[in-house]
Specification:
Elements lengths: L1 E6 L2 E4 L4 E9 L8 E7 L6 E7 L5 E3 L7 E6 L4 E6 L8 E8 L15 E2 L3 E6 L1
Parallel strand pairs: 2-11
Antiparallel strand pairs: 1-3, 3-8, 4-5, 4-9, 5-6, 7-8, 9-10, 9-11
């Protein structure tokens, strides 16, 4: 079992920045085919992909809506993944969830169903 704990959410002004952290504990994965990702869900909307990173090699994947503004990074030794966001917009307001995808799943990194473990989420509110 993998436990994920997010931190770093809060209220941010439009144009500001955020830094979210997600610490993984328990049975963690560090093989080349495992990955961690960030998703978000705004009130009344479906959960959507934000970014993902493969542990080995560090390949990253981004949603078009955050490309160029958000950066995902990971510290394998600490089993922690980070999400840095700049130039935040009110439409970035959402609950942000960290997710872990174990090896053996060959599906899209962009799809939530390919992630097995989820954190509780952290609220990010961007004020205009």
């Amino acid at each position: 079992q993998v436990q994920l704990v997010e931190s770093g959410g809060g209220l941010v002004q439009a144009g500001g920045s955020l830094r979210l952290s997600c610490a993984a504990s328990g049975r963690t994965f560090s093989s080349s085919r495992s990955a961690m990702g960030w998703f978000r869900q705004a009130a009344g909307k479906e959960r959507e992909f934000v970014a993902a990173i493969r542990w080995s090699g560090g390949s990253t994947y981004y949603a078009d809506s955050v490309k160029g503004r958000f950066t995902i990074s990971g510290d394998n030794a600490k089993n922690t993944v980070y999400l840095h966001g700049n130039s935040l917009k009110p439409e970035d307001t959402a609950v942000y969830y960290c997710a872990a995808r174990p090896p053996g799943n060959s599906g899209s990194y962009y799809a939530a169903e390919n992630y097995r473990y989820w954190g509780q989420g952290t609220q990010v509110t961007v004020s205009s």
